[in-house]
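F.,

This is the one I mentioned.
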């Protein structure tokens, strides 16, 4: 479900692009230091974005080093030194990946997911011990979402609300002390989660239709087997675009209230261009040459 939040590369300045990559690599290295090498393959752009956003709200600017990495050992580059924001984001990444692997095993009997989850047994204990409230919130909301999906909930907003609440909890990092900033982060995180959930559901329409998987968009509008899936997509696209744009607008308004002292160029790009172009790509099939690819 993750991987939708990233900058629009062609509109980034070179130094902003290098900084974005430095945070992505910094999160990867932090996951390796905090846990083990295997969990680094669960790295995604959405959590790297959270790391940048939370770092941008800290009183001091992050440190940068020049060194190689596991994916490119001979090519030295800028990497953000492990900090409070990246440690938090790394632990949240472990929770989300671990619960996703367990869900795949329970629902689809995916042996590969069961085997992959073994690498997360010790990391998830550490993450749970360090952030017990976040662990419990994510676990409870994911269980409620799983139950709702098994009941074939036909209301997009109801399903999206539970995933939105997960991102709301994640965005409210415990080391952020200012109550107003936390309130804004919660609202931003809520709409980020809502946007990701609905966009992913639209992105999976053809696959879910073919495999007869749960998808709230297929149920709400509803989809009949005799209808061509392309006709169905055309029929629902405008409504989905409207509700996605609503959440993007709320994210942008929340971001403007935060007024972060650092990384405005990168964050402006993601909030005002990256997410909107990614949405256009999924809804209208635009090419993705301006987006980064994960390791």
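My design for it:
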């Amino acid at each position: 479900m993750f991987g939708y939040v990233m900058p629009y590369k062609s509109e980034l300045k070179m130094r902003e692009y290098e900084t974005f990559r430095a945070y992505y690599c910094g999160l990867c290295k932090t996951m390796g230091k905090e846990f083990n090498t295997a969990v680094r393959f669960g790295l995604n752009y959405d959590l790297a974005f959270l790391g940048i956003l939370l770092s941008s709200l800290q009183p001091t600017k992050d440190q940068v080093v020049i060194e190689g990495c596991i994916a490119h050992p001979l090519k030295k580059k800028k990497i953000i030194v492990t900090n409070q924001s990246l440690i938090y984001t790394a632990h949240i990444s472990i929770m989300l990946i671990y619960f996703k692997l367990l869900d795949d095993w329970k629902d689809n009997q995916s042996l590969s997911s069961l085997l992959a989850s073994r690498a997360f047994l010790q990391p998830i204990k550490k993450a749970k011990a360090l952030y017990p409230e976040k662990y419990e919130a994510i676990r409870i909301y994911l269980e409620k979402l799983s139950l709702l999906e098994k009941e074939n909930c036909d209301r997009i907003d109801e399903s999206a609300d539970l995933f939105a609440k997960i991102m709301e909890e994640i965005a409210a990092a415990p080391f952020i002390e200012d109550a107003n900033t936390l309130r804004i982060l919660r609202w931003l995180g809520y709409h980020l989660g809502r946007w990701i959930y609905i966009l992913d559901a639209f992105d999976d329409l053809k696959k879910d239709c073919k495999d007869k998987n749960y998808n709230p968009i297929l149920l709400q509008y509803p989809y009949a087997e005799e209808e061509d899936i392309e006709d169905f997509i055309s029929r629902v696209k405008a409504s989905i675009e409207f509700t996605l744009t609503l959440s993007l607008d709320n994210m942008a308004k929340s971001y403007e209230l935060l007024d972060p002292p650092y990384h405005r160029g990168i964050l402006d790009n993601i909030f005002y261009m990256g997410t909107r172009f990614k949405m256009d790509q999924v809804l209208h099939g635009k090419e993705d040459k301006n987006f980064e690819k994960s390791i």
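Residues 229-258 form the longest helix (30 residues).

Talk soon.
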